[in-house]
Amino acid sequence: MKLAYFGHKPQPGGKGGGLVSYSTEILRGLRARGLDIVFMYHGPRTRHRRDSKEIQIGALNIMNRSVISTPNARELIEDTLRAERPQIAHASLSFSQLLDFSLPDICHAAGIPIVATLHFPYDRRTTFWGSASRSLYRVYASPLAKYDGIIVFSSEQSALLADYGVPAENIHVIPNGVDVGKYAPGPATYKRDVNADYLITYMGRVDPEKNVDTLLKVFSDMRVPPTHRLVVVGDGSELDRLRERFAAYTQIEFMGWVASDEQRVRILQATDMFVLPSDVEGLSLAMLEAMACGCTVIATDAGADGEALGDAGILIDPESLEPQLRLAMQVLIAYPEFARSLAGRARARAVTYYSLDANVGRLVELYGRMLGTAPARAG
């Protein structure tokens, strides 16, 4: 099977994130199953590596959130599809603020069905973030209806899109997956690096909706031994401000973006408590990675995270974040046996329901079903 994949790739010296991790892991899994893949992604300039079937589309990256493709992007994609002749296409959205809306037309003109994975966060509550996420889904509903298949992470996302007019039969629930062989429990060697007996970790973007400031405030107010440490792994618009605000707290370590998979695994294997205090989420890959590494998880019931964590961690209400987070952290520190039991359940849940191998298998099955009913290729 030959696939055109529209995804994301880190640039030299650049930052990663959930979209980059998703593309990296999915591509690795699909290639391991023998798929022939043409990979298109954005970068600072257009570049075509025919030897590896990788096409970098020139673009502007605005604050690491919005991607604006160069004017010749559509022509480049059309030429690539004609030259490579893939059987099916898959887009990781948002791919580009402009191309998200036109990719179905481009692919259909070439006789190629296209599916899209929708990573947008969502929130069921009547809050600022809830209203903003629902508005985004409304804007995208009409162009999403042009895709031959839409992949979402939860039944709640599926119902939301169907309410906004996306054909229900085109929506497929396939949650994120993690490599449960790579992300697995192991020796806590990282604790020596930060002189910790007990390690609390946040991993993800350091942006306002992630509420890292609340986590730092709660931790700094708690009376814990000096060898209890909190590490913040990730970059974002709030990082410099929070570094300055909490500079006096020697028990808090700001790592910035950690590009190495091996180092992120080391950190998670040493983590006693993983905290994800977001206001809004899709389905956090970092949380799934923490579960797979056997961390005890505290997360807000945002997006699909509550459905994914289930009874294998502590779920808290984003609207009562600070008091509930403080209580949850105190409980896990005070009752280590309870924390260890949650950690074991988190690992088991990740292996059973959120493994990358199962995720990729369901994708390949979906591609096959779509090709069985796909129209003949044009021209």
Write the layout of secondary structure elements.
Elements: E1 2-6, H1 18-32, E2 36-43, E3 47-49, E4 54-62, E5 66-69, H2 73-84, E6 88-93, H3 99-109, E7 114-118, H4 128-144, E8 149-152, H5 155-163, E9 171-173, H6 190-193, E10 198-203, H7 212-221, E11 228-233, H8 239-245, E12 252-256, H9 261-269, E13 273-276, H10 285-292, E14 296-300, H11 305-309, E15 314-316, H12 321-334, H13 336-353, H14 356-372
The residue fraction in helices comes out at 40-55%
- Number of alpha- plus pi-helical segments: 14
Distance between the first and last residues' Cα:
19 Å
State the low-pLDDT regions, or none.
373-379
What does this structure look like?
The protein has 379 residues and is an alpha/beta fold. It is 41% helix and 20% strand. It has 14 helices and 15 strands. Strands 1, 2, 3, 4, 5, 6, 7, 8 and 9 form a nine-stranded mixed sheet that branches. Helix 5 (155-163) links the parallel strand 8 (149-152) and strand 9 (171-173).
Short description:
By secondary structure, the protein is an alpha/beta fold.
List keywords for this structure.
20% strand, 41% helix, 9-stranded mixed beta sheet, globular, alpha/beta, disordered C terminus
